[in-house]
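Contributing new records

If you add data, match the layout below exactly. Sequence lines come first and carry their own label; structure lines follow with theirs. Keep one chain per record. Anything else will be rejected by the validation script.
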Amino acid sequence: MTCIRVLAACLLCAASLAAAAQDQGKKLYCWDENGRKVCGDALPAEAADNARVEFSAKSGRQTGAVARALTPEEQAAADAEAAQAQADAEAAAARRRRDLAMVESYASEDDLRRAYGERIALLDDALKASRLGEENLRRSLTSLLGQASDLELSGKPVPDTLLATIRTQHAELRKQLRILAQQKLDRVGLDDELAEAVERYRALRKPDAAAP
């Protein structure tokens, strides 16, 4: 009989502890609903996406806060911002690796300038070849147009083969002009790249420069 009483007392104590623990973990919620503040001990399903503040039912202290769910447009914007931040971080890391490789590859600033000088010389040669090609194409097209003009002035028909050649030469000239324009941009960009590389090299070679 005594054992039964002890067992019953233990079960009652365990139930009391479980109830206390449940009360300890119970929460109260306050959320905005149609412009007014609503609070309760249960969060309805229709308020699951609303911004809310959570409180301990036992102490009344705030235990957390949940922001409202983002709209599809806001979520897309947030994802795009996160992707851009990741890309920026990767670009910065790649630049640090390039800077470190630059310092390790060139023993002096003169070595760095010589390396860029070789690239500049190659691009200058390509520019000269492109200018020469443009001049040749322009002269050829001018000659072909002259032939067509002479035939028209003399009342003779312009052969289809001549017209086709003129169109082809004109297209080639336009293509060559695009190539030449891009090469000029690349040449200016290479000068800017050299100036920036020298500046970074000097900064990284300082005794007190931070390691990349």
